[in-house]
Structures are given as C-alpha cells and as structure tokens.
TrEMBL record:
Entry's family note: Belongs to the phosphate/phosphite/phosphonate binding protein family.
Naturally occurring in which organism (per UniProt): Marinobacterium lacunae
Keywords, alphabetical: Signal
Protein name, UniProt field: Phosphonate ABC transporter phosphate-binding periplasmic component
Lineage, broadest ranks: Bacteria, Pseudomonadati, Pseudomonadota, Gammaproteobacteria, Oceanospirillales
Pfam families, sorted: Phosphonate-bd
One Gene Ontology cellular component: ATP-binding cassette (ABC) transporter complex
GO biological-process terms attached to the record: transmembrane transport
Keyword match Signal: yes
SUPFAM superfamilies: Periplasmic binding protein-like II
Signal peptide: none
C-alpha cells in the first residue's frame, strides 16, 4: 500500500533505513522507498497522479513506496540532500541547488512532450509572462507598476528565469518595475490568481499553462503571452543521497524501458515518453544560478 506523509514531518523524524530490500547490494538496506515532488500544482492532485507510477515501482522493486507530500520547493531539496527522500521530481533550478549541495543527488530521467499550444518543443519548456487577454496589459511596458505573481523562490520558470533573463527586458530591478510581487506557491495558483484578477500578470511554466488548457480551466484565447524565455529542459527525476547503486540501477532501467504499463502515468503528465537525462542538460540553469 502506498502511504503519504508530509515532508516537513519526515525531515524531523528521519533516521537510517534498516530492512534489506531484495537487492544484491549488501549495503542496500531499504524498508521503504520515499518519493516526493515539487508542488507545481494542487498537491493532492499530484499525489493521486503519481500513484500510477509509484504503484508500478512497488511491484517491480518489491519495496513499499511512500509518497511524501511537499510543503515547498525547498522542502524537497532538503529531503533529497539529507536522505529523507530517495526519489523525487525537482525543477531545474531546485535540482541545480540540490546537486550543488551534494553531488550524490543525480538526475537520470525527464519527460518528453508533443508540441503543445504554449510549449512548442518536445523536451523543453519556457518561462512565460502571461496576462488576461481582455486586460489593458498588451505589452511589457504597460506592466510598469502592475501586480505580478511569481511561483516559489525555488522555481525555475516562476522565479530564477524572470530574475535573470526578464530583467534584461526592463533594464532594471523587478521590485522597482512592478508595484508588487507575490509568491503564489505553485504555477496553478499563480494562474488562478490571474484569472481571479488578484494580479495583473503571472510568470509560469509554459507546460503548466498547457495542462491548465487541457483541463479546460482556460481556453486558447484566455491569456496573452507578453514574454517568453529561452528553452529550459524539463524537470528531472533525481535520486536522493541515501539511495544505493543497485536500486538506482533498477529504478532507472524500469522507468526508461518504455514499458506499456507506464502509459497511465504518462497520461497523467500529458507526456509522450520518459527519456534519459544527465546533469549536463541543466548546465545553463547552473550558470544562471551563480
């Protein structure tokens, strides 16, 4: 049975795992595989969607999988670095931070998507700045003095890219250009704030905007895209510091196998495939983070 717990609690009580998990690696003592993800949208919806993947991992590995509910981007970074989380989905900037703190946090897989309305490239997405299409904000200049939603301080498209690339468009500091900045907590919440007119514009992931569109929460005429970043490689699946080599190998082999049983999970993500990825894919983000 897949259990779920709050990540902040796990970080407080985590201790070494102690029960062997059917592995040929003598040092691989695992009683439970702990999985978490950055909170890109509604966490309960994410937990339900990832169960199609974690249930398969349970069957293949013969190890119980526990889904750890994230409280923030930073909580997942801390989890994989401290060993409280064994397997996670991180954003590119969150991964760069975690890998920089401990190089044993390694990326091994990512998702590929068919071209979509907001995201034209299969293995890449963009940070986009969107406004309501019926608003007076028709270009970047009109946003001076506006209220803008960001995602999370640890977000790539909802914080790092606007802070390092978009600033070149306005020739100055974000806090001086905008009247107010809020952290919505997730891409979906940022778009909800925009639709509710609580903000005038929002920086979000183009892929999350596509999922919003797929869910019928917006249509193709709802948002006006005022700015788009350079392509960013999609979020990586990463191994935490405490996961042993034999389990890393078995997880990677299964997730990259193209097994038809992965289709329900890919359907949840709206993705076409799980593809291999290495640290090199996130070098541009690492350079921006310096």
């Amino acid at each position: 049975m897949i259990r779920t717990l709050l990540l902040g609690v796990i970080l407080l009580v985590w201790g070494p795992l102690s029960i062997a998990a059917g592995s040929d690696d003598e040092s691989c003592n695992v009683s439970t595989l702990r999985f978490s993800m950055i909170p890109k949208n509604n966490v309960e919806r994410q937990v339900e969607g990832y169960k199609s993947l974690t249930e398969l991992l349970e069957q293949r590995l013969q190890v119980p999988v526990q889904i750890i509910r994230p409280t923030s981007y930073n909580s997942v970074v801390e989890g994989v670095v401290t060993g409280a989380v064994d397997l996670a989905v991180l954003g590119p900037a969150a991964y760069v931070r975690a890998h920089g703190m401990d190089s044993r946090v390694t990326a091994f897989a990512s998702l590929s998507y068919a071209a979509d309305f907001f995201t034209p490239r299969g293995e890449y997405y963009s940070s986009i700045l969107v406004a309501n299409a019926d608003s007076p904000f028709t270009d970047i200049k009109r946003l001076r003095g506006a209220r803008v939603a960001f995602t999370d301080p640890g977000s790539t498209s909802g914080e790092l890219i606007p802070s390092t690339q978009f600033v070149k468009e306005i020739g100055g500091d974000l806090n001086r250009f905008f009247a107010s900045r809020i952290y919505a907590g997730s891409h979906d919440k940022a778009m909800e704030a925009l639709l509710d007119r609580r903000v005038d514009a929002a920086f979000v992931s183009s892929s999350r905007a596509d999922r919003f569109l797929d869910q019928g929460r917006i249509d193709k005429s709802s948002f006006r895209v005022l700015w788009r970043s350079e392509p960013i490689h999609f979020d990586p699946f990463v191994f935490g510091t405490s996961l042993c080599p034999s389990l890393r190998k078995r997880i990677a082999e299964f997730m990259l196998s193209g097994d038809d049983q992965l289709e329900p999970y890919l359907g949840f993500e709206g993705a076409s495939a799980i593809i291999p990825v290495t640290d090199d894919a996130y070098t541009p983000i690492a350079e921006l983070s310096q």
